[in-house]
FAD-binding oxidoreductase (Pseudomonas denitrificans), 370 residues
Amino acid sequence: MSDADIIVIGAGIVGAACAHALARRGLDVLVLDARLPGATAVGMGHLLVLDDNAAELALSNYSLQRWREWGHDMPAECAYRSNGTMWLAANDEEMAEAERKFAVLREHGVAARLLNNAELQQEEPELRSDLHGGLEITGDGILYAPRAAAWLLESALKPIRQRQAKVVEIDEPRVRLDSGQWLSARAVVLANGIQAGELCPGLPIEPKKGHLLITDRYPGKVRRTLVELGYVTSAHNASGPSVACNIQPRPTGQLFIGASRQFGTTDPQVEGWMLAKMLRRAVDYMPGLANLNVIRSWAGFRAASPDGMPLVGEHPQRPGLWLAVGHEGLGVTTAPGTADLLAAQLCDEPLPLPAKPYSPHRFLGANAHA
């Protein structure tokens, strides 16, 4: 007799969403995580539609709609807000990118509007005065991911069992804990981010380090999450160390300041030179930041796949092992879409999205090996 219908490894936002979706289908779900509670604690919690490619747009747009639906039910401590994202154009080239994004997003039914210099200054007066304009995505939002993950685990129609335990081996559909105990299930879902490679060697996942800072409380400074359009080329697609302006207002009145990306390191320590570089970039866009107090900084790792898309589905070489990994910086955003897509495949239901762009077969199938 199995210990559960489904064992989910990882209680972060992706694992919690997967557990929630599976429990909604009446399955007995057991979630295992060595860090319970406290998973999903290092990101910004920015919910945004991105359109670098059709698959990213489809998954993020679908997921944002699900977050907006959940937002009506989430408790206040989840800090969900549909405050929007303002993409900032610093030159003609970036304004052209804003216009391109606007056309694509409008075509897919995403609410957006273009702003010129004067309109941008009126909406976000803390920004420097010579920006060319901006693109507002009105349906984007923010949340506090650790509490949102806990809510997903606590609010499922069928109770989800949680256990603080470290999984050291997967022999699908069984898992071995560091205590030596074996647990069995009908299927195992691996959703523990950057640690997934330890339990499933061969996953094409690379750690991408990021730093964040948070200020003291300064209510009303910023209304929307402010992101430079240079992010599209400087940070999101770069292979070396990079920074981009990303300033997010929190419901507390504090400001999150990002963003940075570094490959080729697994050092978890905060690096002063990177913080300085990141702050200089943010101050360049919002000069008044230089007068605010930063009270804390930290670093974490995003699990990045080679093409930037997550691996969602059954492992082609290991039947019974299901993957929900490799989301890089979009794990919080795309957790609902990932969960619905995985649960529909696992339960043999109609798919909410085409599965192929996110299929593990693109890296782990026979053709990929050949």
Q: What stands out?
A: Residues 124 and 229 are 16 Å apart (CA to CA). The two ends are 39 Å apart (CA to CA). The chain has a mean pLDDT of 94. The longest strand covers residues 294-304.
